[in-house]
Every structure is written in C-alpha cells, then in structure tokens.
Specification:
Elements lengths: L1 E5 L3 H11 L6 E6 L2 H10 L4 E4 L8 H11 L4 E6 L4 H9 L4 E4 L4 H12 L4 E2 L1 H13 L13 H11 L4 H8 L3 H15 L4 H10 L5
Parallel strand pairs: 1-2, 1-3, 3-4, 4-5, 5-6
Helix pairs in contact: 2-3, 3-4, 4-6, 7-9, 7-10, 8-9
Length: 211
C-alpha cells in the first residue's frame, strides 16, 4: 500500500518511515511537512493511506483530514498525536479520520493500526479513547434521525462496528460475506443519516449497542 506521511518534523518522519517500512506491505511513497503539502501530493499521486500529525504550520491535520475525506473519501487517515491533543483528536474523528494513536505507541501498534484501518476498522489508542469517547458522545458532528428502524441483522452489524470489528471480522461472526456486510453498512448509514463508520461506532456506543 502507498502511504503518505504528514509530519512537520523531518527527524520524526524519518523515524516513522523506518518503522512502517519494516512491514513488506507498506511503502512510504511520499512525505509532507504540513496539511497543504499533503493535499498537493494527493492531487498528483495515488495514495492509499495517510498518517497525519495534528499540529503543523500552514495547515493543520484536522483541516487537511476534512479536505482529503471530502475529495478522496476512500483514503484512510490515521492521526498520530500526543496525549494533550485529545481535543484535536476528537475533531479529527468528527472530520472523518479512521483513528488516532499516541506518538508513544510501539512500532508494532502503528503497523497493526494501519492494517486495521485499511480493513475498515477504527484504531483508537486505549488511553486516548477513554478520554475522548465521552466528548464524542456528548454531541456528534451530525445527529442521526429519530425515526430509525434497523433490522435485527443491521442492529447486530452496528453493534459489532461499535466494538471496533472490521468488515471481515463482522462477516465471520455473522456468517456473511464481506460484500454483504458492506451492503448492509451502506443501508445502515442511509437509515441513520450518519456520514461514516466512525460516526456509526459512536452511535452504537451512545445507544448501548456495543459491549
């Protein structure tokens, strides 16, 4: 997979590139030092995955995430932040980020998070998740409609999304094909009026559908 690394500190980018390319499936093909540069790279190259810092000059990671998700919704974005950036991380998730980790995370965690996001999962560092989830539940970026009526199958899928399961894991758990799970997710998002998988996971937690 082609990865774009967005980080304003060159020495940090170099370290992350060495870590990520330990995995044979990951190639850090492009780098950027701020959000504006990231968008310029996206306009010229095919990128599968973006690892994004939050605090950067010119354009921060939140604004860059919003623009990238609007223009290239299929691209996965993982925010790599510090513990004190929880407010920024909350907003990044609301803008469509597929997860976020602490910069202190172990190398294996970073690589695992990339693969999880690429499979449709949501990667949240447990320490940060405990801090930001209440804020996400206080108010969602978009409020789902009140006349929601989900089938038993759709409720089961929503529950598993809330538990952070990938499409493949959901398919295995419910004895469905991955394609069927994807179709159900499309219908669930349409019914709930939610924008993406992250908001659906928050919805599941908010309505006590997840463990």
């Amino acid at each position: 997979m082609e990865v774009l690394l967005v980080e304003d500190q060159a020495i940090v980018r170099q370290g992350l590139k060495v870590i990520l390319e330990q995995d044979e499936q990951i190639t850090v093909s492009h780098e950027a030092s701020n959000g504006q540069e990231a968008i310029e790279v996206m306009e010229k190259h095919l990128i599968d995955f973006v690892m994004m810092d939050v605090r950067m000059p010119v354009m921060n990671g939140i604004e860059a995430t919003r623009i990238i998700k609007e223009r290239w919704p299929h691209v996965k974005i993982l925010i790599l932040t510090t513990f004190n950036d929880d407010t920024y991380a909350v907003e990044a998730l609301r803008q469509g980020a597929d997860g976020f980790l602490l910069k202190t995370s172990e190398s294996e965690k970073l690589i695992s998070a990339i693969h999880s996001c690429m499979r449709g999962g949501i990667s949240l560092h447990e320490e940060v998740a405990a801090k930001v989830m209440p804020k996400l539940l206080e108010r969602s970026a978009e409020t789902p409609r009140s006349d929601i009526s989900l089938s038993d199958r759709e409720l089961a899928i929503t529950k598993l999304v809330g538990e952070g399961r990938t499409n493949k894991e959901i398919a295995t758990a419910l004895f469905l094909s991955v394609g069927t799970v994807k179709n159900h997710l499309t219908h669930i998002l349409q019914k709930t009026g939610l924008r993406d998988r992250t908001q659906l996971a928050i919805f599941a937690v908010k309505h006590d559908l997840s463990d």
